[in-house]
Fold this protein.
Amino acid sequence: MNADTPKEFEGILPWNFEMTIDGQTYKTVRPTVGTIAKLTALSGVLDVKAPVEAAKLFADPKPDIEAWDHNKLCYVISSFMTFFGHETSKNSRLVAKQAQDTISKAVKN
């Protein structure tokens, strides 16, 4: 089966988020829906699962998450979620505009 990506999705912004932690810069990866759901469920109640989920946010080489204290872990997850929310908002507006443009062109024809 071959599924084409809708034209409206071609303009989605690439994921480009790096975090500098303790003077070292780490690349992050675009999160999955499952990762976002798990991080959202953790918010406010960071437990032993938090470092496992936080590790999924980074490309290799990953930071030493197990060595972080609670405050650093909260900061990193909050920063990531803030960036994710910002990018999601921009992409949603972009996709909606492209879809509206496509509909407008179709109506004119």
